[in-house]
Amino acid sequence: MDRTLQKKTGIFSFFKLRKEERLDAEKPKDLRTWIVHGLSEYFGTILISLFLAGLSIYVSSHKGKPLVIEEYLLHPIIVGFFAGFVAVGTVLFIFLRWSCDLNPSVTLYRYLSGKNNGYYASYKLFIQILGAITAGLIIHGVGLLTAPTIEVAGQKVQVLSNAPIDALSSAAKAFEPVKGTPSIAKGGTWIFFVEMVMTSVLLLPIFSPNINNKYRDLFIMTIISFSVWMGILGGTAAINPARGFAQQASTLFFHGGQNDSAILAHAHLKDYVKFFGESSATDTGQSALQVIANKHVYSSVVIATAAMILGDLAAPFFYLFVQGITEKYINPAIVSIIGYKNYKALNMETPRSNQK
Q: Could you tell me the residue ranges of all domains in the chain?
């Protein structure tokens, strides 16, 4: 068999890393375009992070329970449509005319598939990180002004600025036969898996050559909506390490010390004592809740952040590999199976065919 054809249909054929495969890799042609694209990525990343991660900001309370902005959208179905068709739609309408990756996973795919020059991809990744940090600081600042106080162990304490993604909460969403006692390791594994799969699904409408460009953005917005609904089931719905980090930044940068009152409040709200039991209390006079808060909560957020970022960044590699497997093995197999002794077309007729 011809070696060129073999290479073309190989399972790694969608990776374009060799010099001769990267002749179409794009980069800005002048300084002005570099600057414009950098500004587009920076402000676009901030905006999409505020639209999505900003939904996690605590703004008030109801019957003693702190409420995040998301809960004012009334129902998870509406949250999904808001994320896809309002948040992402608005960002696409504004920034798509310049540079609109706004997602390190998308940028990494563009590099691995030979669509972007290495310097250009690195530049966008750096700008997206800056945008994520900026958005995270804005979320923290707003949350400081709006986060309510709750009573924990007889004391009034202010909750975190926003609700972070944490591994323990994700672990608790598993079904009973496999859940056992929720642990940070289990939650981190679920977060990695959900993020890798959902981010790969996001890459499909962005880069699939089989989708008409007229409908591509509509597919993207729909997939974002689905990802939010899946996130409600899986405990994470970032599908974008920049947007995800913006949600985590406040807790990572400004909390985590011993006896942090906001971390204590988070452990209380999530009812982590139910996971670990009152036996967590020590003879030092600390309650079980305080011990759990000091020992597990910050670590849960750190592991969730790492798993989320790694899952999102693994997605381009996974999707490129799946593209190769699909083209070489899965598509031919499906066509052969469906076509085998399939006489449906011969047994159907239409008014037009009867006129012949």
A: 19-329
Query: Considering only CA atoms, which of 201, 221, 220 is closest in space to residue 315?
Result: 201
Residue for token digits 């600042």?
Answer: 141
Residue 61, strand partner residues: 66
Nearest-angstrom CA–CA distance, 277 and 291: 11
Q: What is the C-alpha separation between 258 and 150, in angstroms, rounded?
A: 19
Give which of 223, 242, 228 is closest to 42, Cα–Cα: 242
Nearest to 240 by CA among 302, 311, 171: 311
Radius of gyration of the CA atoms of the chain, in A: 24
pLDDT for the residue 141: 95
In the chain, alpha helices (H)? 3-8, 31-52, 76-81, 89-95, 104-112, 118-146, 167-171, 176-179, 184-207, 213-234, 241-254, 261-269, 273-276, 288-292, 298-325, 331-339, 351-354
Please compute, for residue 354, the number of CA atoms within 13 A of its CA located in the half-sphere on the CB side: 5
Asked if the model's pLDDT at residue 224 lies above 60, the reply is: yes
Q: Which two tokens stand for residue 75?
A: 């129902």
Strand, helix or coil at 127?
A: helix
**Residues near 268 by Cβ (< 8 Å), separated by ≥ 6?**
150, 152, 289
Grouping H, G, I as helix, E, B as strand and the rest as coil, residue 306 is helix
Taken in order 105, 214, 35, 18, is the CA torsion positive or negative?
positive
Q: Report whether 104 contacts 238 (CB < 8 A).
A: no
For 51-65, the DSSP string reads HHGGGGBEEEEETTE
Contact 209, 115 (CB under 8 A): no
> What is 19-329's CATH topology?
Glycerol uptake facilitator protein (1.20.1080)
pLDDT (tens digit per residue) in 155-191: 888 889 999 998 888 887 776 666 667 788 888 998 9
For tokens 């509406």, name the residue. 78
Structure tokens at 152: 């924990």
- Amino acid identity, position 59: V
